[in-house]
Amino acid sequence: MISTNFNSPSLYPSTIPNQPPQSLSHNSSITSLFQTCKSMKHLKQIHAQMLRTQLINHNFALSQLLSFCCTHREGDMAYAHLVFDQISEPDLFIWNTMITGHSRRNSPKAAFSLYIEMLHKSIPPDRYTFPSILKSLNYEWALKFGREIHAQVLKFGHGSDTYVLNSLIHVYTLCGRTTRARQLFDRFPERDVVSWNSMISGYIKRKQFREAVDLFLEMERDNARPNSVTVVSALSACAKLKDLSIGKRIHNYIKLSDIKTNLIIENALIDMYASCGCMDIAHDLFDGMNNRDIISWTSMVVGYANLGLIDQARKLFDQMAERDSISWTAMIDGCIRSNRFKEALEIFREMQVSKIRPDEYTMVSVLTACSHLGALEVGEWIRVYIERENIRTDVFVGNALIDMYSKCGNIDRAMEIFREMKKRDKFTWTSMIMGLGVHGHAQEALNLFRKMQRAGVRPDEITFIGLLCACTHAGMIEKGKELFSLMEKRYQISPNVVHYGCMVDLLGKMGHLKEAQELIETMPMKPNSKIWGTLLGACRVHKDIEIAEKAGRELVDLDPQNNAAYVLLSNLYASCNRWEEVRKLRSMMSEKGIKKEPGCSLIEINGVVHEFFAGDNTHPQSKKIYLKLEEMVVKSKPAGYIPDTSEVLLDIGEEERQSALLRHSEKLAIAFGLIGSKPKATIRIVKNLRMCGDCHSLAKFISKIYEREVIVRDKTRFHHFRAGSCSCMDYW
Ligand code: ZN
Ligand code: ZN
Hints:
Elements lengths: L23 H12 L4 H13 L6 H13 L5 H10 L5 H13 L3 H13 L8 H8 L2 H17 L6 H13 L3 H9 L6 H13 L3 H13 L6 H14 L2 H13 L6 H13 L3 H9 L6 H13 L3 H10 L5 H13 L3 H13 L6 H14 L2 H13 L6 H13 L3 H10 L5 H13 L3 H13 L6 H14 L2 H13 L7 H13 L3 H10 L6 H14 L2 H14 L4 H13 L3 H13 L8 E6 L2 E6 L8 H15 L17 H9 L2 H12 L6 E5 L5 H13 L4 E4 L4 E5 L2 E2 L6
The protein binds zinc ion (ZN) (2 copies).
One zinc ion (ZN) binds next to loops.
């Protein structure tokens, strides 16, 4: 995240070397005259004096005058041209000065036309002319004219001049032709440290970090002596590669060499150690620093945040005198990494109060937090904010928006964003297919896949997960099988354990339990607990005790602490009224100390995310919520709602079981949604576990009686409850 300016200790000399003196004492007095000059106003006075004293006819004095206009911070290129056009026979030094002036102002066109004019006047360029022109090039010009200038260099006999060759390396890497640069570099008759630095920083600019590090190592073998620029570049490459061993080697080299450490080197070291996750060493270095800047602090915060050590990160973050969008975004990211999504949004609010402008990385992080929380209002607000603040939106912001809308249950908005995007990559298509899949729009997902193929975008393994998931929703067994074989045949993507899981889900849903079991037993990799869990879930729906027991055993074997196995199996026994087995399982669970993961539901009201646990009465409006819940049940019963206690894993009487059931977190969240939102508004809930059968059934009645759409995202899919039925068709 942290960019270091590698160009600083310059690859080029900052001033043009002095030309041979005309008359030493005379020249030195002219030089001192210009040394005191600080502004164009002052320069114009000197110029007037030169006109009076005939000094204007001396090339040396003229070159000093031009040098100020061209290279001084206060200089004026237009004025330089006025003077230049009056010179009848400018010498090479003057031409070079003019070219350098344009080069410093990044105007390759002007530098070029001067160069051509100079050739017309039959003045051959020297070793200082080329680096000036080369330095003026931007990406497009480098791409277009890099080779031509190279040819000119050879033509004028500077093909073995290291100083000239170094700037050619810079130009070739600038336009992405690192291979060409490297060929040139390898043929250098002589290399200096600038040559190595140019090549290494060229690799880094093109994100070829491994090559950069390798070249650094070659430098050691070549007995070339890296300087401070080299080590900073090499450390940054190690940070990107998370290559601790070479990073340490560079650190060691710095200690043994005569390189004087400075803030830039110390920051590079901290960044390297922090990126490699060595926060102890990074912290020691940080503590030992005499002065620190925002980069030092930010590296530390980013390091801790990336490891999910958000409290340590926060401690440093709070001590920072100034913070930029990188440090804020790192904090938000860190919260996401440690599943503290609500906190991520709180930090974003703090960031806004602090008036630091978020960038596109911040936006993507915040959108990710919204996706997890189902915080559609905040997500929508972010979209408006991005538009209003003109934050750069590229593909990856668009992708994050699609993901947010589809995970927050608004698949139509996701589709709109998708349509509006001018550029799409494979992630865009895949996110959209995935979204359509989990929302049960199988046909649309398949249509989109066809368009993706037509657009020439190559699907990846995630795309196929989305497709298979879509087939499962629609119960399209044949289509699913077709896709499953297509991925290997046409795209050479071998199905992984997740793809097999999708197929098991699809077969299981349609009641092909035997076939599903056979698929698991013949798959090329070891089935994981999730696959057996999927089969077990299917057995629960289709009430197949025999296969369920087999799946349950495998599941417990693979993952003895996984409560899901016990819960699923006991749900199944319970639904067949085999209470003896339920009791056995329950005592097994308590023997092994397995606890049920507490159910938790989130609902966002007016941009605030509220969290409910099962049996929760900590909410300020708790009393009202429970009253509402009672009302919901009372109103639903005449319509046909019968509390289904079969899934309650408690060895208790029927009445108690009913009240435990009533306190499920999603019921509390729905009740709160009815109280807290406007009439007819859609209620959106995110649940961490699979929704139980009773909550599912009650939600259907609620959607009809209260005329509300209820959208629940549970651990595996979306349930859209509308007018008394659910989009999952009661299979989940
Ligand atoms: Zn429930
Ligand atoms: Zn459903």
